[in-house]
Amino acid sequence: MSADGAGLGARLRERDLSAAPAALNLLESASASDRRQATALLREVSPAALGGEAAGHVIGVTGPPGAGKSTLLSALLKQWRARDQSVAVLAIDPSSRRSGGALLGDRARIDFDAGDRGIFIRSSAAGERLGGLSWATRAAAHALAAAFEIVVIETVGVGQAETDVADAADTVLLVVQPGGGDALQFLKAGVMEIPDLLVVSKADLGQIAAQTARELSAALRALGRPSVGVFAVSAVAPQQGIEELAAALAELGAPGRVAERRLRARRASAISDYAHEHGARGLRALGGRRAAERLLEARDPGLDSAALLAALEEAAGL
Ligand SMILES: Nc1nc2c(ncn2[C@@H]2O[C@H](COP(=O)(O)OP(=O)(O)OP(=O)(O)O)[C@@H](O)[C@H]2O)c(=O)[nH]1
Ligand SMILES: [Mg+2]
Fold first, then answer.
1. DSSP code of residue 113
2. Which residues span the domain enclosing 262?
3. Could you tell me if 179 and 280 lie in one domain?
4. What is the pLDDT of residues 42-72, one digit of tens each?
5. Which of 61, 70, 90, 98 to probe ligand 1 with, by most ligand atoms within 8 A of CB?
6. Which residue from 49, 206, 226, 282 puts its CA 20 to 30 A from 56's CA?
7. Would the CB of 295 count as within 6 Å of ligand 1?
8. Are residues 7 and 69 located together in one domain of the fold?
9. What is the value of pTM for the model shown?
10. Residue spans of alpha helices (H) in the chain
11. How far does the centroid of ligand 1 lie from the alpha carbon of residue 106, in Å?
């Protein structure tokens, strides 16, 4: 028998954190009846049901294998819990694949107090692409944001993972190791457009982290993104830069900024679904992409991307 999707969604909406494990099981299930219940769950945590955006700040933490993402998250978790903020972490585990980076023995797990009810952590296997996000992860992040104050998605990768996580998260934090290698790779992959914050990890290893941070700041200025914060951080004792990073994240989690970003993401996703479905001809029927954007801007901001897609199709007479 399937779990009661609507019931689980309602519990999340009422910020019952103990509903998280069953909600995740349901969203990750492939059976047809579970998929129906998953849809019911998501309806209960939609902006329409919530009367606005889910309050949680969805933070994507990404970067190459071994960059220090999990260790950084362990340190951030302590900061957040010290402020009594509830945190859910969805860690996409690529260990079943050859990621060509950190030795498996060298990877740290996220360190947390298993008895702490304000923390929920779930690891899922990576999908087809390294770092690519599955439907279940996107849906889970969205649903958990109704209940938890902070929702983190940890993914590994260079390239596609960043774009994927940028679609699902309100804020993207990119972690790179000190030294030129990682940073250069990101510049080459053209993903410097994506992060809202950049962290150079392992600052305790010496001046090279500060040097890398300066180089990255210069690269971001050259790209016309001077407002992206760059932090040199040590997540192991003696910790360095963690409080400053947590403060910068809190600023990016301001409800106004998050709502604006989600609204833009839903509209962009509806237009790309529409273009995928109906091609250039479909876009012409609406008077072009810009006209499609204007059409969506005139709609109720609480509509989800499926409803926005339907609005585009209706306007085009499709
Ligand atoms: N010296 C030092 N080592 C660190 C720091 N952060 C992480 N490490 C080490 O770097 C290695 C990789 O750290 P992880 O946190 O597992 O890195 P990750 O990015 O989560 O790795 P994957 O999940 O495998 O991609 C581990 O041996 C950590 O102990 C740091 O601030 N200073
Ligand atoms: Mg990790």
1. -
2. 258-315
3. no
4. 999 998 899 989 999 999 999 888 899 999 9
5. 70
6. 226
7. no
8. no
9. 0.91
10. 5-13, 20-28, 32-44, 47-50, 69-82, 135-144, 160-168, 180-189, 208-222, 242-252, 255-285, 289-297, 305-315
11. 7
